Structures are given as C-alpha cells and as structure tokens.
TrEMBL record:
<dbReference type="GO" id="GO:0016491">
    <property type="term" value="F:oxidoreductase activity"/>
</dbReference>
<keyword id="KW-0444">Lipid biosynthesis</keyword>
<keyword id="KW-0285">Flavoprotein</keyword>
<comment type="similarity">
    <text>Belongs to the NADH:flavin oxidoreductase/NADH oxidase family.</text>
</comment>
<protein>
    <recommendedName>
        <fullName>NADH:flavin oxidoreductase/NADH oxidase N-terminal domain-containing protein</fullName>
    </recommendedName>
</protein>
<dbReference type="Pfam" id="PF00724">
    <property type="entry name" value="Oxidored_FMN"/>
</dbReference>
<dbReference type="InterPro" id="IPR001155">
    <property type="entry name" value="OxRdtase_FMN_N"/>
</dbReference>
<keyword id="KW-0275">Fatty acid biosynthesis</keyword>
<keyword id="KW-0443">Lipid metabolism</keyword>
<dbReference type="InterPro" id="IPR013785">
    <property type="entry name" value="Aldolase_TIM"/>
</dbReference>
<keyword id="KW-0288">FMN</keyword>
<feature type="domain" description="NADH:flavin oxidoreductase/NADH oxidase N-terminal">
    <location>
        <begin position="6"/>
        <end position="158"/>
    </location>
</feature>
<dbReference type="GO" id="GO:0031408">
    <property type="term" value="P:oxylipin biosynthetic process"/>
</dbReference>
<dbReference type="GO" id="GO:0010181">
    <property type="term" value="F:FMN binding"/>
</dbReference>
<dbReference type="GO" id="GO:0006633">
    <property type="term" value="P:fatty acid biosynthetic process"/>
</dbReference>
<dbReference type="InterPro" id="IPR045247">
    <property type="entry name" value="Oye-like"/>
</dbReference>
<keyword id="KW-0925">Oxylipin biosynthesis</keyword>
Length: 181
C-alpha cells in the first residue's frame, strides 16, 4: 500500500512524531483574567493524538505584553496561578500521548491599548475596513530597554519549565520585534 507522507512518523531533534499533522497555534480569546479556563482541557485533549504535535495558543509573557483590546482574554504564563491553571490542560494532552508546545508572545504594537504600547517602531498598526479598534501610536523601544523585554521571555520560560511542557516556541512577530530594534 502506498504510504501517505502526512501520516508517516518523523523525528525533529529530540521529538518523535507519529504523524505530521500539527495543531497550529490558534488564539481563542477565552482565557478570562489571562487564566486558562477548564474548557481548555477539553479543547486541547480532543485534539491530542499519540505522538502528535499541538502548539498552544499564543500565551503572554509578563503583564504589559497582552493584547488587551484587540486580542483580549489570552492566557498568560507569568504567575504561579497561571501555571496551576495550565497544569490540567497539559496533563490531559500528555495523558493521550500528545506533544505539547507553548507559544509565548509579546503583543507589541497591539499590547495594552489603554496605555502606550511598546514596539520596535513608532508606526501604528494600519487599520483596514474590518477593524473596529484604532491602534495607538506605539512607543519605539530604546536599545537599553530591550533586555527588560527579553527578561519577560525568560520569566515565562522559567514558568514553563515548572510546568514541564514538552517544548517552547516563541512567537515570530516577537522575533521581528526584537530584530528590528
Ligand atoms: C482565530 C485565529 C487565531 C490565531 N491565533 C494564532 C496564534 O495565537 N498564534 C499564531 O502564531 N498564529 C495564530 N493564527 C494563525 C494560524 O495559526 C494560521 O492561520 C495557521 O497556521 C494556518 O496558516 P495560514 O493562515 O497561513 O493558512 C491564528 C489564526 C486564526 C484564524
């Protein structure tokens, strides 16, 4: 029988995947107070398979990094309470043999809209006709402020270590956020 590449196993680094179908990170905007809720247990475990990769929705590093108005109710990973709230979600995925990565992010130009968001640029997000929120002009980070933002990722990574998630993936926009500065 002809083998289907998508369903064949592969190995990347220390990870062995039984197939190549991946749950892409999908922001759900249901983590009220930046805490994963119990319905996330069902959501992620339903999508977990033995040896399959799931990437969790974008998860905030410490608090001023959240997309408050434009992307509300995203989970975070900077307090012990958040770690505790993630635990049953991770356990449920692991119970089904799933490999669970967490995507950590800083919402940059769309973070903390009430105040002045920080970014690698002072250009606001361009509005298109579907948008209902005006994005403020962000404050361009000074070079000496960058280590503080990097430190937010370190704090989140330490929290994830406590959680023993299987992997860690940082959000691509954050990478450009740093490299443009
Ligand atoms: C509702 C929604 C939420 C999303 N949330 C995230 C997210 O949290 N992190 C991310 O990197 N991409 C996010 N994406 C992008 C999806 O992961 C992306 O659409 C998916 O990988 C498919 O790629 P494509 O849109 O280029 O076909 C989101 C997309 C949608 C539609």
């Amino acid at each position: 029988m002809e083998s289907i590449a998508l369903l064949s196993p592969c190995e990347i680094g220390r990870f062995r995947f039984s197939h190549r179908i991946v749950l892409a990170p999908l922001t759900r905007s249901r983590s009220y107070g930046n805490l994963p809720q119990s319905h996330a247990i069902l959501y992620y475990s339903q999508r977990a398979t033995e040896g399959g990769l799931l990437i969790a929705e974008a998860t905030g590093v410490p608090s001023d990094a959240q997309g408050m108005s434009l992307i509300p109710h995203t989970p975070g990973i900077w307090t012990k309470e958040q770690v505790e709230a993630w635990k049953p979600v991770v356990d449920a995925v692991h119970a089904k043999g799933g490999i669970f990565f967490c995507q950590i992010w800083h919402a940059g130009r769309v973070s903390d809209m009430e105040k002045e968001p920080i970014s690698s640029t002072d250009k606001p997000v361009e509005k298109n006709e579907d948008d209902h929120v005006d994005c403020p002009i962000p404050r361009c980070l000074a070079v000496e402020e960058i280590p503080n933002v990097v430190n937010h990722f370190r704090v989140a990574a330490e929290m994830l270590w406590m959680l023993v998630l299987t992997g860690l993936k940082s959000m691509v926009p954050m990478v450009s956020f740093l490299s443009n500065s």
